Amino acid sequence: MSMYVDLLSNALDDWTGELSDDDLVDHVLTCRSKMLSAVPRRGESTYSALAAEIAYDRALIKLCVAHDIDVVPQDFVFPSEERDRLEHALTTVGI
């Protein structure tokens, strides 16, 4: 298992809240925005960017599960490819 998949799996285990569908969509969009803007500048740590990616992927997985889209953390070996797949799957169900 890759380190990223391990981190994501642990983050999923730590998810304790239940959100309504609208709140979950809003949370996903907020996490996505933070992830896209979390590019570290030269000399800065990449930990905050990694944390933003994990937060987005965790929220994305929860949204997909809520809409019966097949997803498992192990598919995030190549995170950007899995994000693209899941984002496309969500558009097919109207999100």
Write the layout of secondary structure elements.
Elements: H1 3-13, H2 21-37, H3 47-66, H4 79-92
Task: Walk me through this protein's architecture.
The protein contains four helices and no strands. It is mostly helical and 95 residues long. α1 (3-13) crosses α3. The chain has helices at 3-13, 21-37, 47-66, 79-92. The model has no long low-confidence stretch (mean pLDDT 93).
Individual helix count:
4
Into which percent range does the helicity of residues fall?
55-70%
Q: Major sheet, described briefly?
A: none
- The structure class reads mainly alpha
Mean pLDDT: 93
Low-confidence stretches: none
Instruction: Tell me the total number of β-strands.
Output: 0
**H and E string:** HHHH
Morphology? globular
Distance between the termini: 30 Å
Strand content: under 5%
Please give the radius of gyration in angstroms. 13 Å
In short:
The protein has 95 residues and is mostly helical.
List its traits.
mainly alpha; 4 helices; 0% strand
